[in-house]
Amino acid sequence: MSESIQPDVTVDSRGATCPGPLMDLIGKVKKLEPGTVVELLTTDSSSSHDVPEWVDKAGHETLDVVEHEDEGYWSVFIETTK
Amino acid sequence: MTGYAIVLESARLERLQAVGNIAAIAAASEVPVDIFATMGGLEAFDKERIASMDYEMGEVGQAMMQAEGMEMAMFYENIAQAKELGPLSVYACELSMDMLGKTLDDYHEVFDDVLGVSGFLSHAEDKQVIFV
């Protein structure tokens, strides 16, 4: 699925520890229009689980979480709904 | 219950980081948070203390300090960032400041105001109180 996802916005939080990636994502999402697809890049394994938790609770949609094992990071794709 | 009122007394790094992280994400998620920094928790925000990174810490804190290739935001940085994203207020304990003869200028700029106990309790009356 992720190969077909073309993000409108990319948030690169690689290197930041929890909760940095989520803070970066929230800061960005608050400024975006509904229907925007965002790709969050994170090297923090806990964020790869925790970010989708927040996304769902906040009422947005998690589209996919892809691990780039060789490069040591994850892509979390979300779509804003409000 | 409409949010959290955190009484931060500890100057231990792990507790400070935990409070900073949880308060930041809650506030960024539009959950109101008040932090009342008192006693040791207030002194953790002293500018000289921050500059010297003189904090009591255990294993996790030491690992955090020694981690390489990671950008780890400190508790005051997460709090400062969260204040721009949601309803997070930070108050300094008046008694603690009076005892040490300090003013807000001696502390990191995250603070909104100085409060006594009654003032804090007014802020906390509709919130879940957490003591750290």
Topology order of chain B in helix (H) and strand (E) letters:
EHEHHHHEHEHE
Distance between the termini of chain B: 19 Å
- Here the CATH topology of chain B equals Hypothetical Protein Ychn, Chain: A
Overall helicity of chain A: 25-40%
Number of helices of chain B: 7
Give the biggest beta sheet of chain A: 4 strands, mixed
Strand order of the largest sheet of chain A: 1-2-4-3
Précis, in short:
The complex is a heterodimer of chains A (82) and B (132). Chain A has 82 residues and is α+β, with helices and mostly antiparallel strands.
Identify the notable features of this structure and list them briefly.
heterodimer; A: 82 residues; alpha+beta; Translation Initiation Factor IF3; four-stranded mixed beta sheet; 4 strands; globular; B: 132 residues; alpha/beta; five-stranded parallel beta sheet; 44% helix; 17% strand; transferase (chain A); TusA-like (chain A); TusA-like_sf (chain A); Sulfurtransferase TusA family protein (chain A)
Provide an overview of this structure.
The complex is a heterodimer of chains A (82) and B (132). With 82 residues, chain A is α+β, with helices and mostly antiparallel strands. In chain A, 28% of the residues lie in helices and 30% in strands. Chain A has one domain (2-79): TusA-like domain (Translation Initiation Factor IF3), CATH 3.30.110. Chain A contains two helices and four strands. The mean pLDDT of chain A is 93. Chain B has 132 residues and is α/β, with parallel strands linked by helices. Chain B is 44% helix and 17% strand. Chain B has seven helices and five strands. Chain B has a five-stranded parallel β-sheet. In chain B, strand 1 (4-8), helix 1 (13-28) and strand 2 form a beta-alpha-beta unit. Chain A binds chain B through residues 15-20, 22-23, 26-27, 30, 54, 57-58, and chain B through 21, 24-25, 28-29, 67, 69-73, 78, 81-82, 84-85.
